[in-house]
Amino acid sequence: MEYLFADRTQRFSSSAVRDILAVIQQGDVISFAGGLPGEDFFPTQQLQIAYEKVFASGKSTLQYGVTEGYWPLRELLSERMKTKNIKCTPDAVLMTTGSQQAIDLFSRVMLSRGDIVLTDNPTYLAALQVFRSYEAEVYSVQSDALGMDPADLEMKIMRYHPKFIYVVPNFSNPDGKLWSLERRELLLELAQKYDVLILEDDPYGEIRFDPSAACPSLASLDQARSHVLYTSTFSKTVVPALRSGWITGPSPVMRMIAQAKQASDLHSSSLDQRALYFLLRDFNLDTHIRMLQTEYKKRMTMMRDFLIRLPGLRFVEPQGGMFIWVKAMDELDMTLLLTEAISHGVAYVPGAPFFVENPQNNTFRLNFTHSSPEILQLGMSRLASVITA
Amino acid sequence: MEYLFADRTQRFSSSAVRDILAVIQQGDVISFAGGLPGEDFFPTQQLQIAYEKVFASGKSTLQYGVTEGYWPLRELLSERMKTKNIKCTPDAVLMTTGSQQAIDLFSRVMLSRGDIVLTDNPTYLAALQVFRSYEAEVYSVQSDALGMDPADLEMKIMRYHPKFIYVVPNFSNPDGKLWSLERRELLLELAQKYDVLILEDDPYGEIRFDPSAACPSLASLDQARSHVLYTSTFSKTVVPALRSGWITGPSPVMRMIAQAKQASDLHSSSLDQRALYFLLRDFNLDTHIRMLQTEYKKRMTMMRDFLIRLPGLRFVEPQGGMFIWVKAMDELDMTLLLTEAISHGVAYVPGAPFFVENPQNNTFRLNFTHSSPEILQLGMSRLASVITA
Fold first, then answer.
1. Using the beta-carbon criterion (under 8 Å), do B269 and A6 form an inter-chain contact?
2. Which of A37, A253, A260 sits opposite B3 (nearest CB)?
3. How far apart are CA B356 and CA B119, in angstroms?
4. A255, CA 20 to 30 Å: which among A41, A206, A317, B155?
C-alpha cells in the first residue's frame, strides 16, 4: 500500500552524512565525527554503586513514576543550579530523556506551522531538525566570535516576530564559540524588550578549560526567570547512556511542557533517574568534572598542535566543549572529501549541514574528547594525508 | 510576559481527575485508580543481576547508542514475536520509552491537523490525548463485547477516510474487552480493502487468565505485514520503571518513525535496554508471566466476588488484563462521587473521560493488580460504603 504520512514528515531530513557515518561503526575507521565523550573517564564503578543503591531502596522504586521526574533528584538539581546563580525551585525542573528531548518538548509546545525561530549560523544540527519537524521556519542571525550581532538580532526580531531564539552560548556545537558577557546581556535585553523567549542549550558549559573564567548563563542573568528556558544534560559529564537531561523555566511554560511530556512517554526511566540521584548525592561530580576539564584540554591541545602544522587550515582554539571547528582551503568541499577520508581510515563531520543558510562547504568539525592520545595521533596523521593530498 | 503557545496546546487536556488522583499519593487512600502492576511480583533480584551484567560488559556500554535501539535486544524481541506468529526482522523493531512513546511517534509521523483517527468507545485516555495533541479528530466506532461492529466500521471508514484505526484488542483499557477472532479478521479485512493502517496497542496481551485460549494478534493475521503497526511493552510483565516498549510494522513507516525518534530523544536509555536484553536472555520470562497470570486472576476473582455482592452494579468479568470496568446505577455520577470516595479512603478512575463521545457518567474503572489481597479487601469495603450510601 501507499503510506500517506503527516505533512510535517516532508520536513524530516534524512542526512546523507549520517548514513555514511553509520557505516563506519563497523570498520577500522578512527572517527572524530560523533559528539562522544571519552569512555576512559566514565565513572563506571560509582555508577554501578548508585544502581546497587537503587535496588536496595525497595520494590516501589520499580513502579511507575511522576511525569516531571523523581522529586529528590529535582531537589538536588535545583540546589546545583543555585550554585550557578540560576534561581530555580524543584517543581520548575523537569527531567527529560537527554537535552534533545527538552528541545523537542519545548518546540512542541511553542511552534505552529510557519512560526519563526532565530538561531546562530552554523548551529546544532539536531535542533534544526526538531524546529523544522514542527514546520517552523528557521532564520539565522549574523554573528562573530563573541556571539550574535545585536543590531542584526534586533532587526530580525522586529521583522520576523520569532517564537524564540535558540542559542548555545557555551562552546557551541559545531563551532565551539564562547559568547562574551556583554553579548549575553544584550541578547537578554532584546528578548525582554520584545518579549521573545530564549532557549538556552547548555550541554558543554561545565567542560571549560579555564574553570576560573566566569561566564554566567542567560538563565542566571534573567533575574525574573521570565524569558529563558534553560536545558542541560549529564550525557557529557556522567555518561550518555543514562539519557538524563533537564529543562527549567517560567512556570506557565513548564506546566505546558509537562503535559507534552506526559503524552510523549509518561516519564523517563525511573531507574536511571534514581541512580543519578544517588550518584549526585554521594559522588563528588565537581571533582570528576575538573578531571574531565584537564584531560579534555590535553586532547584538544594535541589536536590543535597537529592542525597548526597543516597548511591552509584556519580555526579558533576552543576554550572548552568537545569540538574544533576548522575551515579548510576555499576550494575544498569537505562533504565530497569525506568518502576519501574514510577510505584513509579517518572520519569527521562536514560543516555544511550545520548552516541555516549560506553553507560553507570548506568547513568541518573535529571531536577531540573521544579518542585516546594514541588514537588521536594516528587519526590526525591520516587526516593530514587527506587534506594535504 | 504573556506566553504564546503553539496552536496544538489548545488541544492539551488538563485532567481534573488526574489532579485529584495526584493528591492521594500522599495520604492513607487505597487506590484502585492507577494502571499499576503488583510490586510483590517484580523480578527485582533478576533485574539487579541483569544490571550487574551490563556493568560487566565494558565502558562502551555507557556510550551513546543507536536511535532504533540495542541490536541484540531487537534480535531477541524479533524471535519472541515469531513465537507469537508475528513476522518480524530485528531491523523492523524500534525500542521506545514505554509503548506510550510508540503511540506518540506513530501519531507524529501520520497525523496532520484535521486528520481522522477511529477508535473504540471508551478507549485508552492517554492515546486520545496524543491524537488530539496533533490536532487530529477522533471518531468512535460502535462496538459490543466482541469488538467493533464491522458495518459501522466500514461506514465510518468510507465517510471519514481515517489515517488509522486505534485498537487495544486484548483486555482493553478501560473496559477489559477481549476481541473475538472473527472481529479481528473483519477489522483487518476492512483495513486492507480500504488501505487504512491499524495501530494495535497490546500492553496486556500476555496477562491472560486462560493461557490456552488462542487469540492471534492483528499483526500475526496481517501476513503481508503491510497494514498493522504493533506496539507492546515490558511495563506490565517486567517493571514499569524500565520504560521499555517497542513498535514494529511496515518498513516505510518504521523508517519514518526512526527519524521522529531521533528528533525526540536520540535514543532511549541504553542501560535499561541492555539490562532488559540480559533479563530476556537469562531469565525465564514466560514462567514469570504464568505466575502473574495466576496471581492476578486470584486478585481479580476477589474483587469480582466483592462487586457481585453490591447492589446495582453491572460488569463483565475480564479474562485478563488489569481492570474491571463497572457500570453503577444510572443516577450515580462517578466523577462527582470520587471526592466522597477519597474521603472514605478509596479511589478509582471515573469512566467518563475514556469516552470519545456519549460519556457514561455512571461508569468507573477498578485496577485489581496493584493491591495485595488484604488491601484489596479493605479498599473494597470502603468502596461498598460509598456506593451503597
1. no
2. A253
3. 8
4. A206
Of B111, B250, B262, the CB nearest to A6: B111
| Matching CATH number, B45-282, of 3.40.640.10, 3.40.50.2300, 3.30.40.10, 3.30.1340.10 | 3.40.640.10
Q: Which residue out of B1, B24, B255, B259 would a mutagenesis test of the A interface target, given it has the greatest number of A Cβ atoms within 10 Å?
A: B1
The verdict on domain A7-43+286-387 having CATH code 3.20.20.370 is no
Q: Topology of domain B10-43+286-387, per CATH?
A: Aspartate Aminotransferase, domain 1 (3.90.1150)
pLDDT (mean) for A184-211: 96
- Render pLDDT for A258-276 as a digit per residue (tens, 0 to 9): 999 999 999 999 999 999 9
Give A148's strand partners: A143
CA-based nearest distance A188→chain B, Å: 14
How many Å apart are CA A126 and CA B118, to the nearest integer? 33
Chain A (1-60) residues lying within 8 Å, Cβ to Cβ, of chain B: 1-9, 12, 14, 34-37, 39-40, 42, 44, 47-48, 51-52, 55, 59-60
**Percent of chain A topping pLDDT 70:** 96
Question: How far is Cα A384 from Cα A362, in angstroms, rounded to an integer?
Answer: 15
Q: What pTM value is reported for the model?
A: 0.97
Q: Which of A1, A44, A109 sits opposite B55 (nearest CB)?
A: A44
Q: Do A243 and B266 touch (CB under 8 A)?
A: yes
Nearest to A130 among B226, B263, B268 (CB): B263
Query: CA-CA distance, B172 to A18, in Å (whole number)?
Result: 40
C-alpha distance from A317 to closest chain B C-alpha (Å): 26
Q: Which CATH architecture describes the domain A60-282?
A: 3-Layer(aba) Sandwich (3.40)
- Using the predicted structure, report yes or no on whether residue B17 has a pLDDT greater than 90: no
Q: Quick check: B351 and B19 in contact, CB under 8 A?
A: no
Q: Is the ipTM of this complex over 0.85?
A: yes
Collapse the DSSP code of B244 into the 3-class scheme (helix H, G, I; strand E, B; otherwise coil) and give the result. Answer: strand
**Nearest-CA distance B7 → chain A (Å):** 6
Minimum-distance CB partner of B14 among A34, A110, A259:
A259
What's the whole-number mean pLDDT along residues A350-366? 95
End-to-end alpha carbon distance in chain A: 49
Separation CA A133–CA A76 (nearest Å): 33
Residues B82-108 pLDDT 10s:
999 999 999 999 999 999 999 999 999
Closest Cα in chain A to B105: A264
Residue pLDDT, tens place only, B207-237: 999 988 768 999 999 999 999 999 999 999 9
pLDDT tens digit string along A83-94?
999 999 999 999
Bridge partners (DSSP) listed for residue B197: B164
CA distance A332 to B251: 37
